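Hey,
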Amino acid sequence: YDIHSKIGNSAISAKINHKLEPITTQINSGDQIEIITADNARPKPEWLEIATTAKAKQSIKSFLKRERQNNIERGMQMLDEKMKSLNIKLSGRVLRKIVPIYESNNKEELYSKIGAGIIDLKDLDKVLKVNSKSKILKFWTLFINKKEDEEGDDPAAINDLSLIHISEPTR
């Protein structure tokens, strides 16, 4: 990274004193170094633990942030296109359903995984048709029995809690 961030971002290995070494090998003053790069190589978050200079760490963070933002934008576009092909409007309700199904913590993580190719949307139509396993709310029906003649004519006047019965709805 000290020479150029583009070299650091695409580094895959190093020759130190004419010997092939992993990129994580510590170098000493006077070592002859040749950096081996690949066009498809990309920095990984683990590199932040290995990098020692502030310039290298900043270059890695900057690349990862840019890559994440690109993945989010690409993922948003891919999900939007898939939803349009299914004739479904992308809404907060739909996102709340698919975020946990695709094991994401929030919509940005979902978009990022889609954009990075970690999540494939080929089965999205099946996923949307499946009912959630854990429902937050259960709907209950409240039945109120009216005591004859004791409460008068007002059905809203309930003074005896023993008259309230709660039952689960039938399916």
